[in-house]
Predict the 3D structure of the following.
Amino acid sequence: MIKSMVYFGHISIGEVELWPKGETNVAAAPWVREIRVDRLSPPSERCLPLAVLHTVSSGALCFVMESRPSPATADDEPPSSLVAMHTACLRDNKTAVFPLGAEEIHLVAMKPKSNLPNHACFWGYKVPLGLYNSCLSMLNLRCLGIVFDLDETLIVANTTRSFEDRIDALQRKLSKETDPQRISGMLAEIKRYQEDRTMLKQYIDGDQVIDGGKMYKVQSEIRDTSVLVRLRP
């Protein structure tokens, strides 16, 4: 067991007893005696925070911590700031976030088995920075992220040079094609590439694009690295 102090920002909010868990060497960590929370996570609308962290960080439970026993207090005395944070996390399905460089520890509020009044219990999960919020956004929106493959199944990307190569290749095929339907398809594809090339040239030359009669100003880029990306027809 390790005695630690919990801070919210630079303000001390309570003392805790911490028990290391799992394979992480928490006892030797330089931060173990000062748990510095800097924010609460967004609320989880569909799943308990514990379920989310169990899913995205299997085996990442690194410690359990509980507020230290305190002398009996009067019923009308307000709870400590640590207990208030614990109550808010339980009520709103939030976690308390403790940043650690490229990682972060999420303190998940748990209902203590002892059911003592003014008592706080948290489980600490270490995950890559931003992973929890990314998963939470997808869960709350009921929308999964898509990773596109690179063979242009759904989207197609072109530079000025690749537009020219594609148009040239199509024109060579067109000169040998005799089927009217295929010729019509090739002409439509060439026209689409030419229009997209013109749009990309606008972007390269003037840092702006006119599409559908509307001007879109864009940030300047290094010459010859600009790419136009659109959904495949």
The chain has a mean pLDDT of 84. The helical segments are 49-56, 81-92, 131-141, 160-176, 180-206. The two ends are 62 Å apart (CA to CA). The CA atoms of residues 155 and 230 lie 6 Å apart.
